[in-house]
Structure formats: C-alpha cells, structure tokens
Design a protein that fits this description.
Elements: E1 10-15, E2 20-26, E3 39-46, E4 49-56, E5 67-72
Antiparallel strand pairs: 1-2, 3-4, 4-5
C-alpha cells in the first residue's frame, strides 16, 4: 500500500507536459475536474484532431511570466 501524502489547501506543482515548471494550485479533494486560467486561446487541428494553444500565467500577480502551451483536446465542457 502506498503511503498517503498530506498536502495543504494550496500547493506548488508542475505541469511538465505543458511546459509549466511551477504553478500554485488550490487543492479540492471533492472535485471531479480541474481547470487552469488561460488567455489567448486558439483552436487548431492536427491530423483531424482538435488541439488548443493558450497562454498561462503561472505566477500569481506576475503578468510578465507567461508560458505558451499546446495540448490535445480531450473533452469539451460547458461552464
């Protein structure tokens, strides 16, 4: 059995698949989904598959630090 890790309600994490080395996350153990604040969102296709390009600002109150991310669309949701 894997030992459980105790975390706080806000923690630093990395999203290497998106090129984000460090971002502050709010932890919600009851949530079924997660989200990330994104700007400059552009949809495009690669081999008939939907992809999205967006800009993330991983450091709160720091608009100068921006990361351009590309990701394959897994699921579309309505807010």
């Amino acid at each position: 059995m894997t030992a459980k890790i105790t975390v706080g309600w806000r923690e630093w994490l990395s999203l290497p698949e998106l090129g984000i080395e460090r971002i502050k996350a709010k932890i919600d153990t009851g949530a079924r989904t997660s989200c990330i604040h994104a700007i400059n969102i552009e949809e495009y296709e690669v081999d008939s598959e939907k992809w999205v390009k967006f800009t993330a600002q991983p450091l709160q109150d720091d608009e100068q630090t921006q990361v351009t991310c590309n990701a394959k669309v897994k699921k579309e949701v309505c807010n």
